[in-house]
Write a structure and sequence with these properties.
Elements: E1 2-9, E2 16-25, E3 28-37, H1 43-48, H2 64-67, H3 84-95, E4 97-101, H4 108-119, E5 123-127, H5 134-138, E6 139-141, E7 149-151, H6 153-160, E8 162-167, H7 174-184, E9 189-192, E10 198-201, E11 206-212, H8 227-230, E12 236-238, H9 250-260, H10 264-282, H11 292-303, H12 308-320, H13 324-340, H14 358-373, E13 391-394, E14 404-407
Parallel strand pairs: 4-11, 4-12, 5-8, 8-11
Antiparallel strand pairs: 1-2, 2-3, 6-7, 9-10, 13-14
Helix pairs in contact: 3-4, 9-10, 9-11, 10-11, 10-13, 11-12, 12-13
């Protein structure tokens, strides 16, 4: 053979690098293309979470507008053997869809963004709710006539691929869930009734993740998922808090200590309070269990010089419920933990105000005793005016709305 030439074509944004060798002979031209998989953006995390064997992008490329939807710089997830990232990626690789269920603040959305970033997929996020209409999700015509059509989030995902993330899915309207059924089963297409029943096939790298809080009265607006929609989600992954009851995670303590810049002693006390409140929440004794973000907010006030018990009044106590009895329950947990943990705090809040100094306490006590000794003043009784016995109200019968009176 003669006339051997080599051309190299490589685009840094493509998931695979291609090198083409061309050989020419008499009347014969042979092209050989060697493809090399592009290295992941964060290879250390791909190896850490053990997802290098699951290629979700499958050689597809995205244009600049879609690449802008790929998450960047997502923080690492504190994994304690649950392997959430690996389990979600594996579920998408085999079934193309999965469901995440767990209380607020357990990291469901965080992990979805991390999976999308490590896989190099754009994410289409929809916060489901009763006010989210089908027009917002599937699209609509704009202006007069049928000339200007705008795709909704779900239609755009179906056309271009990526991860469709339905947050709070058990608050979704039933008509929306029903229209997703053909996309999630073997049919793999979406019927766009708003646009003359156009059929849009599901993109080869189009994945679906739904997340939701457990169905309960605590999360207003939630309802059980439709059975037909539920059975199309092959994998269900439960999420839980890092610290619950007597189980205290050192990583969560370190996270609060780092984020809020408080001492390890304070961070440990805050996590212990959070763990006990979560235990009571899971036992249906409290309406809410604090997330790690809630505990960090509490710790931030403490780092600003506020006593832990006082800062708790403005964060975890007030946030748990508006009910005074529930707040008292949370308040007792806070006092129990920080009174036994040797906290340097000397300021303790009671139910209504901060504990007063000794002199002020004595004055307050004397004032209350004086008030008790005072004799109660009998209230004045004001006699109501009485109608004269010589006056009678008589219904004239002329109208349902007019009354006539006559004196006898």
């Amino acid at each position: 053979m003669s006339g051997l030439s080599e051309t190299h074509t490589a685009t840094p944004e493509k998931p695979k690098e291609r090198k083409t060798h061309t050989a020419e002979s008499t009347g014969v031209r042979l092209n050989v293309t060697i493809s090399k998989k592009k290295q992941a953006e964060r290879p250390e995390l791909v190896e850490k979470y053990d997802v290098e064997n699951y290629d979700l992008i499958q050689g597809h490329t995205f244009d600049d507008k879609l690449r802008a939807l790929i998450p960047r710089g997502t923080p690492e997830y504190l994994d304690h053997g649950e392997k959430y990232v690996e389990r979600i990626t594996r579920a998408l690789y085999h079934f193309k869809q999965c469901a995440l269920i767990g209380p607020s603040g357990t990291g469901k959305t965080h992990i979805v963004y991390l999976v999308a970033e490590l896989s190099g997929l754009p994410i289409w996020e929809i916060n489901c709710g009763l006010q989210t209409s089908a027009y917002d999700l599937f699209g609509r015509y704009v202006g007069l006539g049928k000339e200007n059509w705008i795709d909704g989030q779900i239609v755009s995902w179906c056309r271009y691929g990526g991860v469709l993330y339905l947050d709070e899915a058990n608050m979704m309207k039933q008509d929306v869930a029903t229209r997703l059924n053909p996309v999630l089963d073997t049919r793999g297409h979406l019927v766009l009734t708003e646009k003359d029943n156009e059929i849009i096939p599901r993109h080869p790298v189009g994945y679906v993740i739904i997340s939701m809080n457990p169905y309960s009265a605590e999360f207003a607006g939630t309802k059980p998922l439709n059975a037909a929609f539920r059975r199309r989600l092959s994998v269900w992954i439960d999420f839980d808090y890092l610290s619950v009851g007597s189980k205290i995670a050192d990583d969560e303590i370190a996270l609060v200590e780092k984020k809020a810049k408080v001492s390890k002693e304070i961070a440990t006390g805050i996590i212990r309070v959070g763990a006990e409140l979560r235990r009571q929440y899971k036992a249906n004794e409290l309406p809410y269990g604090p997330s790690v973000g809630d505990l960090v907010n509490w710790a931030l006030l403490v780092s600003d010089g506020v006593a832990p018990e006082v800062a708790a009044e403005e964060t975890v106590i007030a946030m748990t419920s508006d009910n005074a009895e529930v707040q008292d329950t949370v308040r007792r947990v806070v006092r129990m933990i920080f009174s036994t943990s040797g906290s340097p705090s000397k300021v303790v809040k009671d139910e209504r105000s901060v504990q007063l100094p000794k002199e002020d306490q004595q004055q307050q006590k004397k004032k209350e005793e004086d008030q008790v000794q005072e004799e109660p003043v009998a209230p004045k009784i004001i006699e109501r005016p009485r109608y004269s016995s010589s006056t009678t109200i008589v219904d004239s019968g002329d109208s349902d709305f007019s009354f006539g009176g006559s004196e006898i």
